[in-house]
Structures
1.
Amino acid sequence: MVLQGAVRNALYLLEPELKRREVTPQLEMPSAPVTVLAEPVALEQIIHNLLMNALQALEQIPASERRLGVTLAEADWQGVVTISDCGPGMAAELTVRIVDAEEGLALNSSYRQKNYATNVLTFDYTQAPMVTADLVLCAPVIAKEARESRKTLQAHYAHLLVHGTLHAQGWDHETGERDALEMETLEILLLAALGFDNPY
């Protein structure tokens, strides 16, 4: 799929919202097609959601000061979409706890009725006006997974922090194949922006 087309389609669908909020996106896209391997509808939906989040953030500032940038690039054989705005962002209060296998098993058993320690648990409490959540990372499970998948510990922790934070914002990969694909694609995009390789 050509990434430029996905960005243009998402912007086309958002034209009424852009006009209503008096926002003209500033686009920076290479002339050569940036081709990515992705499910087209899922990718367009993710770009649409990111743009909509930016537009919602811009509502909090005067129309004359609103800026929305969409930059597309290719780096290390990956397509990179960067969406930037000058809004205040989403307020969040996250607590991250790193636990041992025993506590990880106890929490997963108590809250999910699963009899094993898992890599990350997200306890989300609110999503608006502020995201509040606890993220619980099980150190021995994460270390084992990183070794088995030949990832650095830093890269695997980064992935699981992004994964848990998305859960705190309402994303869920267990509600269907399409939801899983959207969440995984968003994780890949966010981790690329942080300098990490595709975790999948």
2.
Amino acid sequence: MATLGGAVSTTADGPGGDASSRSRARRGGAVAATLAAGLVLLIVAIALVMSKSGMKETGSNRASAYRLLAVTRAGDTLCQRDELVPAGTGAVRASIGPTAGRFARLRVTVRSRGRVVARGTYPPGARGAVSMMVRPLIRHDTPASVCFTTGPRSHFIVAGEPSQSGAASIGAEAVSGDVRIVYLEPRPRSWWRFAPTAMERMGAGRRLSGIVVGILALLLSTVAAGAACAQLLRSRP
């Protein structure tokens, strides 16, 4: 404290000012550490999710699967005709499921122009969505009928989209709808392998490439988070 012309003045360099500066520095350091930890956790979470495997679709027949169409009997064959099986298909998933929790046996056959071009078997006793590997690999877009045949002690329910196309049938009896069928690549792939395709689509129709768009989006998110934290620090005493 100093006096000048009878007036009293104080400076901010005393113990109180130092304590306030140290408090602000500690708060800033805590916020920075929290941001860094959150960023690291976010990167780790993204890496874990992207490292999981998934089967890439080669296409589908675009039918929905929101209505029960039929329930088969033991030994029945369900066929969906007028399909276009895309090139690269090595597995087939259909909107059918067992009536008793699991299939005893289920076969899939892909026929084109009267001959079998691929076939596969669902593992006996397996549960879950009906995704069956077919061999050999379909190497060209192939017009075909896709048929599913149950074993002598197995039944399955058929879901799909109501339609008057008459493309689906169980034996000689027409089904009043189309079964949803999804065609898949033969082997699961890490989601990292889909990243270039996603980046390419992000840049579609733009002057900038998808990679640049992705980097800019990440930078903008980081800047926005930093600005929010800075505003928070300024607003606190």
